[in-house]
Amino acid sequence: MAPFCYFPAVDEEALFRRRLQQLVLQKYGSLDRFYLETDFSKGHLSQILRGKRSPSLATMTKLATALNVRVAEFFRPA
After folding, report:
1. CA–CA gap between residue 15 and residue 21 (Å, rounded)
2. What kind of fold does domain 12-75 have according to CATH?
3. Per-domain residue ranges for the chain?
């Protein structure tokens, strides 16, 4: 019988939201400045940050480009 391996549950969506907000604030200083300097809709990003909407891979790629990071960076603990 194979040994039991336990991996703790990780809420990837919550990790993504926290990391996204942290990266936006690091680069732009505020969400308002991010909205002004990029093509992102305030409503759309607000829904993503509140967990009301899940971003597509295309949206994650656009966010990563605007923040000058790789998409994988959204899923790394701070």
Report:
1. 10
2. 434 Repressor (Amino-terminal Domain) (1.10.260)
3. 12-75
Reduced to 3 states (helix: H, G, I; strand: E, B; else coil), residue 57 is helix
Q: Is 20 exposed, middle or buried (0-12, 13-18, 19+ CB in 10 A)?
A: buried
Cβ partners under 8 Å of residue 78, min gap 6: 18, 19, 22
- Residue type for position 23: L
| pLDDT tens-digit series, residues 15-68 | 999 999 999 999 999 999 999 988 888 999 999 999 999 999 999 999 999 999
Q: How many CB atoms lie within 10 A of CB 5?
A: 5
CA 12, distance to chain mean position in Å, is 10
pTM for the model stands at 0.81
DSSP secondary structure letter of residue 61: H
